[in-house]
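Discussion board: Methods & Data

I've been asked by a reviewer to show the raw model output for two of the constructs in my manuscript, not just the figures. I'm not sure how much to include, so I'm pasting the format here to get opinions. Each protein appears as its amino acid sequence followed by a line of C-alpha cells. Is this the kind of thing reviewers expect to see in a supplement, or should I convert it first? Here is construct A:
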Amino acid sequence: MALIIETGAGVRNANAYVNAAYVTSYLTARNRQTENGWAAATDAVKEAAIVAATDYVDKRFGHRFKGVPKVTFDETYAEAELVFGGNPDPADELTLGDDIYTFVSSLSGDPYEVLIGASATTTVLNLEAAINGAAGAGVAYGLGTAQSRHASALAAGAVLTLTASAPGTSGALSVLEGPVTNVSITGFSGGKDGGIQPLCWPRTGAYDQTGTEILGIPDRLKQAVSEYAVRASADILLPDPTTDPYGGRVNQRTETVGPITESVRYDSGTVGTVTFTPYPSADKLLTPLLLGSGNGGVIRG
C-alpha cells in the first residue's frame, strides 16, 4: 500500500502521518536506526509499519485527542465518456448498470431501444434522451424506457459524457460496457467520497499547555508514530489477546479429569475490554495532545 501522507491541510485517503525518511531521520538522531532491522528493511516493510503505527495511534488515542477533526470533504461524482466515431450497427448493445440499450434502425416500441440517426451526432442525442428520460419516447428511443438510475448524460457533438448517479467511489463501480461499433468507451472514474477527514489530525480547538492552538500535524505526533512504526516493523502493535468464549483474559485455568471440573480465574476487569500494551517512550510523547493534559477545553476566539 502506498503511503498517502497527511500534511495538515486535510488529505483525502490519507493513511500516514509521516514518511519513511522521517522515521529514519528520527531514529538516526538517536542512534537507533538499526533497531528491529529498520535500516535494512525494504521500503514496503517500512511503509506498512508506518500505516500500522498511524492506525494504532488513531484507534488507541482518537477519542482522547483535544479538539475535533478539522476538515470535511465535498463528494464528487464519477464520470464516463462515449466517443462516437460513426454510427453503431443495428443490434449493438450498450450496458449501463443493469440497463441494456439496443441501437436499432427503426423502433419496435420495446423499452431501451435507441434509434440510430442520420449521423453519429443525432444518435448521441437520441441516447442522451433515452438515458435522461427526456422528450423523444417512441421517436428517438423506445416507448417505456425508464430514466437511467445509474447515470445522467450530456451530449456535445459526437461525445456523450455520463455522470454517475451515486456519489463518491461507489459511482465509479457503475458498469459501462459494449462493444458498440464505432464507439470508444471510457468507464467511470474520478468519484471521490465526501465526509470527514480519514485521520484524527489535523484538528481544530486543540491547544497546548500554553494556550497556543496546535496547528497542522504536531511534531510530537510524528515522533510518536516513528516510535510505534519501528516496533510495528517487528511485531503487531495491537494483537488479539488470548481469551476464552466469555471474552475475558485468562489469568489461571485449572482442570481436573474424572469427574471433569474446571476453574477459571480472569484478570480483573478484562471481560469485554481491550488492554493496550504500554510503549512508554511513544505513549508519553502523546500525553500533551490528550484531554486532561491542560487547556484541552479552551476555545479561543
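Construct B, same format:
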Amino acid sequence: MKALVYHGPGRRAWEDVPDPVIIDPTDAIVRVDAVTICGTDLHILKGDVPEVTPGRVLGHEAVGTVIAVGSAVRSVKEEDRVLVSCITACGTCRYCRDAQSGQCLGGGGWILGHLIDGTQAEFVRVPFADNSTHRVPDGVADEQMVLLADILPTSYEVGVLNGKVRPADVVAIIGAGPIGLAAVLTSRLYSPGHIVVVDVADARLDAALKFGADTVINSARQDPREVIDELTDGLGADVAMEAVGISETFEQAVRLARPGGHVANIGVHGGPATLHLEQIWGKNLTITTGLVDAYSTPTLINLVASRHLDTSAMITHRFSMDEFEDAYRVFSSPGDTGALKVLLTPSRG
C-alpha cells in the first residue's frame, strides 16, 4: 500500500510500505476512506515529538471501512463504516476505566502515527478496535465525521470541560486555528455570555466569527486585555483557552484570566513556557493541561448526527491521497492559503 512516511525532521514521503495485518485478536484493519492532517503532525515534522522515529506512518484521524477483524473483536465487523479515534483504549487499565484513555497503560493512548503506524495511508491497523472505533451514523458524511477523531473531542474535553465553561461566562480563546474554532463551536453548547477569539491572522478571525465568536481581536494591532476588561468591568475572562502551543500565547492566556478563573491549555507545546507565579500566586487560578481522552466522542457523534453541531465548514481544501505533499504545503501555510482543515480521499484511478 501507499502511506505518508516520516523520515526525520522536515522529511516525509508518500511511498510504498507493507500492508498492515492483524497482530492481536483485538485488532481491526480499516481501509481509509477519508483522512486529514493535524497540527500535531506539523509538530512531529518540526522534531518536537522525538518519540516518533523515522519510518513511522503519520496520522491519527480517519474515517474508513473495516475490512478485517481479529477473533476477539465484537462491536464492529467487516464492511462497517467507522471513525478511527486518535486515542486507542485498552478499556481495562486503571486510566481507561477512569475515562482517561489518553493515559492508557495497556498499550493504548495516543499511539497512531506516534508509536505505531498511523492513518495517513490506504489501510491502517487499529488496536483495541472495540474501544477505539465508532460506527458512523447513517446520513453523516465522512468530512463531518473525520473531525470527531481529534479536534472536536480535544477542544471539548481539554478546553471547554477542563475550563469549566458555564452559562454567561466570558470565554477568551487564543488561537483561531482548527482547535480554537472547535473550541468556539463546543463552548456554545454551554451558552457563554461572550466568546472572544484572539489571533494575528485576519482570515482566521473572520472564520471565528462564522463559527460563533462574538468578538475577535487581532493581537498584533490591539491589546486583548483592554477589550476583555471592557466586557468584564476589569476582572478578566472567566475562562481563557490557549489553542496555539507557544510560550507567548500560554502566558497571554494566564494574563487574560480573572482571579478565580480557569486557564485551559489545549495547544501542543514544543518548548517551555514561563509560569509567572510571582505575579499570579494570589489569583486563585485553576490551570489545566491535557491530552484528549476521547471519552466524549459518542456524545459529539450524536450532536453531529442530530445536527446540533455542524463541523463541515471546517474543511476548506480537498485532495486525493497522492497529493499529500500539496495537502501538507497548503495546511502548513494557513496565512497564505486560508486553510483550516484539509481532507484527503483515495487517489482516483
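Answer (T.O., handling editor elsewhere):
This is acceptable in a supplement if you add a one-line summary per construct. For B, something like: The longest strand covers residues 28-36.
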